[in-house]
């Protein structure tokens, strides 16, 4: 009888356990907003795991697993069958000029022009299209792409447009050709001098070429875009970025007014792109933000200042330790004095803001690494950045790791510059240019960007340049200085989780993990396995932000 009672009690207990288990399962079952299944999901988590599916609720990843696990546990109002396609975290451009790119879409596009004659033709077409604009603007020319690899002169522009000011910016933004009308409006004369800039003069006459800080004298005379034009510029830029899989980016060099406009557009729903802002180090910007601190929402992160160290290699404005190989006695130049760099570093060190400095030449990189080191003192988590880190003397490389300095690089700069960089630097110094792998090794991670519109906005070009070190035509065979190529995993991390980390955002985005924003992109083929020559041309099928579709091919 005792055994019977014991068996009966055990049966009741087992029944209760099963009932509790069922009740528990039912309680734990959740309704999701979206389930994506039947995919090859690159989570980009710490162990670089792959999955098949994930559920989304309230704009965030709810769970990640197999298709069977996710679909059996969650019921969603919307499901997406990925049909085996590759899925990645939303791509993040760690250094771009998003707002400037949007504005440039309203200017003459001079990228890819093969002569100054073609530049003039495009400018003439732009004028015919917009005959009433007060200024004619354009950007994207590169004399290194022309048969005659010399800076142009303003003579033809003066003849064709004697009464309309013109400014046409070089592809890197560090040189421009302007006409006489623009020079007159800016009050520039052959004797005009400044720190960190150059007004080119030949035979006592201005050629119209302005380099670095000299450009500001002219651009300051261009009327500000209206608020409606600014809004449209941001929307146009966003549309193009979503189409190539970008869901986040860093905008390098903004003022408070533009950050405020982005914030307002985020709140109204007109702008969904997540933006990390590098502020211009103007007195109004410094006064406001150093007093009020970092400004952070889910879509806007204002927490750094963009400092301008030197110019660009292509326009010979990058500051070098030894003279340019193709211009005797010319070293380039800094855009501010050493004292100014030290003062801003000391100021920002007392705040929570990052110092992100544009540094191309080995002299500039050395100076800024030393200044950072003096202020930071050793290992830290300030995540101060050197933007570009393009030419680094071997003696300075270890300073990145010693002071926890983040090298923020743009792989397509290497494949755009490789045709002529050796002319500027010489054979030996070229070996220490675009050293992405060596830079990665200093801290174990590296954020990747494009610097668009200097380069193309497509992050797949960044990936291809980082991994294959080749251009669009897969030149050179075998790649350019392949000892500094990145692996596919490193490149993908660089444009997702490491880009997020460079902005202190790795806990909210950059990987497909529970609790993070449901930002992801689906490609037609797998970036991690496709042949290198096919990487650049892969099509984006879908882009999602907060679990909502923002682009579909």
Automatic annotation (TrEMBL):
What keywords appear on the UniProt entry?
Hydrolase, Signal
* Annotated signal peptide: 1-21
Tell me if Hydrolase is a UniProt keyword of this record: yes
Q: Which InterPro entries match?
A: Amidohydro_3, Metal-dep_hydrolase_composite, Metal_Hydrolase, YtcJ-like
GO MF annotation, one? hydrolase activity, acting on carbon-nitrogen (but not peptide) bonds
Q: Which domain of life is it from?
A: Bacteria
Which CDD domains has this protein been placed in? Answer: YtcJ_like
Domain Amidohydrolase positions: 78-551
Is Signal a UniProt keyword of this protein?
A: yes
Q: Which PANTHER family match?
A: IMIDAZOLONEPROPIONASE, PROTEIN LONG AFTER FAR-RED 3
Query: Could you tell me what this protein is called?
Result: Amidohydrolase
Query: From what organism does this protein derive?
Result: Pontibacter fetidus
């Amino acid at each position: 009888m005792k055994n019977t009672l014991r068996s009966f009690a055990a049966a009741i207990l087992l029944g209760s356990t099963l009932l509790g288990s069922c009740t528990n399962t039912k309680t734990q079952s959740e309704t999701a907003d979206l389930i994506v299944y039947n995919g090859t999901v690159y989570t980009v988590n710490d162990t670089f795991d792959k999955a098949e599916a994930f559920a989304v609720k309230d704009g965030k990843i709810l769970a990640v697993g197999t298709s069977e696990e996710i679909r059996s546990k969650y019921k969603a109002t919307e499901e997406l069958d990925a049909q085996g396609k590759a899925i990645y975290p939303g791509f993040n451009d760690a250094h771009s000029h998003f707002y400037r790119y949007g504005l440039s879409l309203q200017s003459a596009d001079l990228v890819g022009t093969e002569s100054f004659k073609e530049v003039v033709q495009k400018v003439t077409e732009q004028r015919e299209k917009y005959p009433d604009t007060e200024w004619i603007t354009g950007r994207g020319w590169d004399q290194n792409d022309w048969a005659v690899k010399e800076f142009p002169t303003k003579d033809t522009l003066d003849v064709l447009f004697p009464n309309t000011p013109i400014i046409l910016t070089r592809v890197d933004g560090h040189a421009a050709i302007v006409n006489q009308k623009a020079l007159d409006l800016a009050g520039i004369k052959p004797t005009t001098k400044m720190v960190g800039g150059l007004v080119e003069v030949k035979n006592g006459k201005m050629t119209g070429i302005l380099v670095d800080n000299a450009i500001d004298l002219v651009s300051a005379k261009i009327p500000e875009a209206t608020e409606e034009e600014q809004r449209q510029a941001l929307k146009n830029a966003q549309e193009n970025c979503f189409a190539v899989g970008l869901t986040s980016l860093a905008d390098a060099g903004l003022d408070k007014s533009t950050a405020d406009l982005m914030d307002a557009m985020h709140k109204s729903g007109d702008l969904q792109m997540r933006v990390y802002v590098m502020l211009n180090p103007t007195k109004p910007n410094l006064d406001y933000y150093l007093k009020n601190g970092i400004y952070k929402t889910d879509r806007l992160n204002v927490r750094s200042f963009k400092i301008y160290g030197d110019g660009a290699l292509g326009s010979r404005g990058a500051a070098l330790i030894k003279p340019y190989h193709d211009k005797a006695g010319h070293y380039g130049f800094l855009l501010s004095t050493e004292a100014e760099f030290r003062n801003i570093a000391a100021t920002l060190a007392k705040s929570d803001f990052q110092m992100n400095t544009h540094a191309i030449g080995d002299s500039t990189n050395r100076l800024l690494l030393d200044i950072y080191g003096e202020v930071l003192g050793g290992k830290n988590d300030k995540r101060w950045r050197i933007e570009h880190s393009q030419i680094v003397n071997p003696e300075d490389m270890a300073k990145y790791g010693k002071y926890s300095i983040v090298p923020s690089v743009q792989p397509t700069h290497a494949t755009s510059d490789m045709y002529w960089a050796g002319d500027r630097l010489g054979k030996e110094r070229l070996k220490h240019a675009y050293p992405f792998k060596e830079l990665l090794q200093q801290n174990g991670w590296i954020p990747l960007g494009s610097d668009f519109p200097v380069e193309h906005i497509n992050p797949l070009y960044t990936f291809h340049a980082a991994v294959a070190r080749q251009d669009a035509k897969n030149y050179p065979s075998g790649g350019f200085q392949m000892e500094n190529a990145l692996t596919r995993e490193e490149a993908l991390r660089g444009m997702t989780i490491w880009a997020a980390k460079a902005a202190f955002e790795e806990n909210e985005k950059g990987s497909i993990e529970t609790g993070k924003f449901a930002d992801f992109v689906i490609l037609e083929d797998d970036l991690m396995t496709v042949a290198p020559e096919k990487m650049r041309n892969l099509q984006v099928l879908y882009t999602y932000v907060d679990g909502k579709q923002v682009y579909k091919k």
